[in-house]
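ENTRY TYPE: protein
CONTENTS: sequence, structure tokens:
***
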Amino acid sequence: TAETADAAQLLLRTQTVDAMIVDLRLPDQRGDILFEVAAALQPHLRPATLFTTGDASDRALELIQACGTPCLVKPFDLGEIIAFADRVTRRARDASA
């Protein structure tokens, strides 16, 4: 896990990440910008990223929609994140089979 975009970028440069759950609002950078950096470093993350946000404004949702990823608006049910992780890992297993 990483609490800032800087920490996430360091992790992405040194380790392979299977999936990402990214808040649109990070302390040091917008999540959509982190997403683009992550997808450039590890392209498999493009379909394996879930956004979360407490900001349901039109602008926030447009930023997330431009990334082409699903989004959960807070508050959300933890089961929704578990279902996302299950879909991503199942897709990765099927692709490697």
About this structure: Residues 78-96 form the longest helix (19 residues). The longest strand covers residues 49-53. The chain has a mean pLDDT of 92. The helical segments are 5-14, 31-41, 58-67, 78-96.
